[in-house]
Write a structure and sequence with these properties.
Largest sheet: 8 strands, mixed
Number of domains: 1
Radius of gyration: 17 Å
Oligomer: single chain
Shape: globular
């Protein structure tokens, strides 16, 4: 069965970036250079006349193009989704989900966003009126624009009282609200949630303001495996965690 593709990109870009057969193609054609399982990892962005996005293993110094790194959530990431109306943005109360945590846990991948490689004071400072932010700063926006996978994806943080701040959720589709904001020069960790095992392909665009104009990256796809890698080790020689 084809893996569902959800996107708010124009149809021509969906066909180019996320064809329905992508997961099968990846399983058969190419291994990953790195399967990340418990490391401290950043989805990192830089800008020097154009955007550059990479997956950075801060524990061991590896830097990977998004195409060649798989962020893995194993059995240790299984959790039951909490009860309460504040948690209704993603899954059903008590349902099994897989979570990569905002706070470090040596049994699970510790995955965040980074803008630390950007030149200082390069982008415009402005008031971000998103009610989840409502602050002035040099904002870098990570917008989810497409998802291919067997279930839903959510990205959220918890505040000092344990309440969730939902940044991204595909439960209700994908819209402009599915975005995470990061200050230029900063980095931040988040929770990543998945509702089903399998391979997920999450496509983001990064943007910021410069001289009153919005500079937007081409779409870039990050790869996630939930108790799956899609790697046939008899063909590739890459071991499944």
């Amino acid at each position: 069965m084809p893996t569902p593709v959800r996107s708010n990109l124009p149809g021509i870009l969906i066909a180019t970036l996320l064809p329905l057969t992508v997961p099968a193609q990846l399983a058969n054609r190419a291994p990953y250079n790195k399967i990340l399982t418990t490391e401290h990892v950043e989805l990192s962005v830089d800008y020097a006349s154009q955007w550059s996005v990479s997956v950075v293993d801060t524990d061991f110094g590896g830097v990977y193009a998004p195409r060649w790194a798989l962020s893995f959530a194993g059995a240790s990431a299984r959790r039951n989704w909490p009860t309460g109306s504040q948690w209704s943005f993603f899954s059903s109360p008590g349902a099994q989900v897989w979570i990569l945590p905002q706070t470090q846990d040596v049994t699970r991948l510790y995955l965040g966003f980074s803008a630390e490689d950007l030149p200082g004071n390069f982008f415009d400072s402005y008031l971000n009126s998103d009610p989840r932010v409502n602050r002035t700063g040099r904002w870098i926006t990570w917008s989810l624009v497409g998802l291919s996978g067997p279930g839903d994806l959510a990205v959220w943080q918890t505040d000092g009282f344990g309440n969730p701040i939902a940044w991204i959720t595909t439960k209700d589709g994908i819209s402009a609200q599915d975005a995470f904001y990061l200050l230029e020069g900063g980095h931040s960790h988040v929770n990543w949630g998945f509702t089903q095992p399998g391979l997920y392909f999450a496509t983001f665009q990064v943007s910021a303001r410069k001289n009153g104009q919005t500079l937007t990256s081409p779409p870039v796809t990050f790869h996630f495996g939930v108790e799956a890698t899609g790697v046939d080790r008899t063909r590739s020689g890459v071991l499944t965690p």
